[in-house]
Amino acid sequence: MYVPRAFAESDIHLLHQQMQATPLPVLVTHGSQGLVASHVPLLLNPDEGPNGTLYGHLARANPHWQALAQGAEALVIFAGEQAYVSPSFYPSKAEDGKSVPTWNYLAVHAYGQAQVFDDAERLLALVSRLSNKHEAGRAEPWSVSDAPRDYIDSMLKA
User: Fold this and answer.
1) Are residues 76 and 39 in the same domain?
2) Is 85 found in the same domain as 15?
3) How do residues 67-102 score in pLDDT, each as one tens digit?
4) Would you say the pTM of this structure is higher than 0.85?
């Protein structure tokens, strides 16, 4: 992603803050099926690895897992606030007409190699953490343990 120097952010804590505030980032890979992009809920562990570690779950029908298992690099886009900036906002428009529109936006692009796993207990723990995060604050939060275990086991294999 092209980032003008004046707008570049290198504070890992601020980057992590935006990543955690974006519940459904876009995962992009390039594998044998070409470019694939999917919105995928992810969890960030900011204390694992030099830049943090992302965790997520993909259905087997999603071609991402195959590309990732084959070593494809992943790009995850965490898009934040954005707004069109009209030339009318700039004093230079009235002074000399030398202004053009632009777009201000907040985005974090995270790159890396994924580790694909299918260990049932590890997967169950991950799906439980994902569900608990997104159910938090609801009047009656759903939990993975609310569903029959054999059903959850079959879904984890899907």
Assistant:
1) yes
2) yes
3) 999 999 999 999 999 999 998 988 887 788 888 999
4) yes
